């Protein structure tokens, strides 16, 4: 709706027009302050300009009224327009809220080290990234979801050591001494047994083979990671292994030009000249590349693939890497403005008001898979999408296990199921319902219809602002309006049954589509336990 109105006003006024929604619904569906921006140009008062502009819309098919209110132009959409749009949406469900954006985007998210299962902090970035991905796909962007596998460096060496120590203690029954840093958790058991079967016990006692053990094991860890993500309905289009990139390091160093220099037997990037706090080491004295070196080669590879825009979703602890990577991109000859880095903050879990106890079997971290098992993937996705990703998140698991209106995902699912139940109780055929016109609705029904048809605007705003929480906020509000309408208005057996049912179908379409864009399937009915 907003797009249609914006296009009409842009054509009429020959310029972009800011559209707002009046807080007081009695003022109409949309408003614009264009008269204020024209006042200086025309040397007239905004109120006079607004009055003249309002009178020029007398014969509009889209608007039932255009009024001047204190210098604002207020627009009320016509019943014909709303009814025809609602009918089109129901006839074209798969196209509802879609657009045809042309931009090509590479979105990288999660990218957790392949050294252990995903923990709850990873889940937040995963849900945020996947929701952005779904919104972009729906809007027509050519977007690729990518996982960067950090399978090089010290963390991989530590994986091999950790598996060997676990196996020597628990399979070979040796007494071992653990170093200060090592990986722990039940997942090591499966890896150790698999390694025993593939390589034999000798690999656990031969330190020269720990690297071989680690490189084999990281593929097994990635299988665990991919399975955990799939249980959250998250899937990736492409995977890029860090280890595959270093053959290109010499070429990338040459490409960096003056951005790279040697000092104290180390190789540095001159990132301070590009806005970083200091220059950074990219190759150590012993020739081993730093973590930043891998990022440089990876981002060069990204940009060489020729996307229009690049989005990284990183944990908040990676904030300091942003200026370093941007500096490298500039030295590589690319526009760092094409790279957008979004941060995902940490998560704190409660259970019945108390801090959630970490599992020793999980290695003293809260595993994502454990929380999914406890509250379900729908609830977890909804929680992590419902607050800005760059702000801290604390939630109580108990709240999302409740089967009542205090649990927002239950509340929204119940609204969708309630609509399906009401439709099933009607004796009217779908053809009779669809042929009804959504005119002469009473005020609450008119408001509900307009709100249900706002989904396209919400989808575009949630993606363009990168604030995916706007979608669950909208769905909660729409569900609340539906439940109130249900209690306030009799539907079955009334003279207006057909058009009221059609109205509910539009609400159901927005709820179903919105949930789908969050990776959640709408429920057509609730089980006895859920009601």
Summarize the structure.
The chain is an alpha/beta fold and about 525 residues long. It has helices at about 1-15, 35-40, 45-55, 80-90, 120-140, 155-170, 185-200, 200-205, 210-230, 250-255, 290-305, 320-330, 370-375, 375-385, 410-425, 430-435, 445-450, 455-465, 470-490, 495-515, and strands at about 30, 65-70, 70-75, 105-110, 140-150, 240, 260-265, 265-270, 280-285, 310-315, 340-345, 345-350, 355, 395. Helix 12 (about 320-330) links the parallel strand 10 and strand 11.
Question: What do these coordinates show?
Answer:
GO terms for molecular function: arginine-tRNA ligase activity; ATP binding. The chain is of the alpha/beta class and 531 residues long. The chain has 3 domains: 77 residues, Gyrase A, domain 2; 189 residues, 3-Layer(aba) Sandwich (Rossmann fold), CATH 3.40.50; 117 residues, Isoleucyl-tRNA Synthetase, Domain 1 (Orthogonal Bundle). Helices cover 47% and strands 13% of the residues. It has a 5-stranded parallel β-sheet, covered by helices on one side. It has a 3-stranded antiparallel β-sheet with strand order 1-3-2. The chain has a 3-stranded antiparallel β-sheet with strand order 7-8-9. The chain is globular, with a radius of gyration of 28 Å. The model has no long low-confidence stretch (mean pLDDT 94).
Task: Just give the CATH class of the largest domain.
Answer: Alpha Beta
Shape: globular
> What is the residue-mean pLDDT, rounded to a whole number?
94
CATH-assigned fold name of the largest domain: Rossmann fold
CATH H-level superfamily title of the largest domain: HUPs
Task: List unreliable stretches of 5+ residues.
Answer: none
| Structural class determined from secondary elements | alpha/beta
